[in-house]
Amino acid sequence: MGKLTGKVALVTGAGRGIGRGIAIELAKEGASVAVNYSGRVDAAAETVVILRALGVQAEMYQANVGVPAEAAALVEQVVQDFSKIDILVNNAGICPFADFFDIDEENWRRTLDVNLGGAFFCSQAAARHMRDAGQGAILHISTVTSYRAGATQVHYAASKGGMNSLTSSMAFALGKYGIRVNAILCGGVATEINTPENEPIRTKMPTRYLPTGRTGDPEDLGKAVVFLCSDDSEWITGTLFPVDGGYLVT
Asked: How many domains does the chain have?
C-alpha cells in the first residue's frame, strides 16, 4: 500500500523529462497515471511501459493543452477511462529561449497559451469532477525563473509568474470543495529543455552556486509532488514550494 494507492493522477507533458519523473514517483506510491503528451508518441509509450512495470494502470493521451478544447477533452477522456480524477499535475510547458527583441506575437502567445492557459483549462475541467467528489489535489509546476529570470526567458517567466498567482487564487476559490492547489518552484533540472541539443546535460549546468552541490533530477520533483498530493500535506494549500537545490537562497 502506497500513499496514493487507489488514486488516479493526470500528468500533463509526462512523455519525458520532469513529467516522466513525476509520473514514475506517483506510480511508485500506487497511483494510476494518465500520461499526456503532445508530440513524441514513442517517448510517451516508453513512459507507459515503465509505469505498468510498477504495477499500476497507465494510459497515454495526446493533447495540446494550450488549446482549451483539447485540454477539456483530455480530462473528460481520462475520467471516462479511469472513472475519476484525484490528482492533476500541470507540468506541460515550453521555454523557447529568445532575445527580448526577438519575441514576436506568435512566440509570446504560444508560451502563455501552453504554460498558463493549459494549467488553467486543465484545472477547470478537472476541478469540476473533484468538486463533485468533494476532494482533489492540483499541482502546478512553476519555476524559480519567475523570481530570478533569465534574459532570454522573459515570456517564459511571465507565464510562470501568472501560474504563481493562479495557484493562490485557485486555492482560495476551490478550498471549499475540498480541493487543494499548490505549485512547485522548479530549479535547474537535468532535462533536454535546459541544454543545447546533443550536449551532455549534467556537465552543462553549473552547480557551484547550489548549496546541495548538484543539479536536480526529475525524480526530485516527483518526490515533492507525491508529498503535496498525498494526505501528508492535507493542511497545505496555496503554497509556492521551492524544489531547487537551494537556488533561491543564493
From this structure: 1
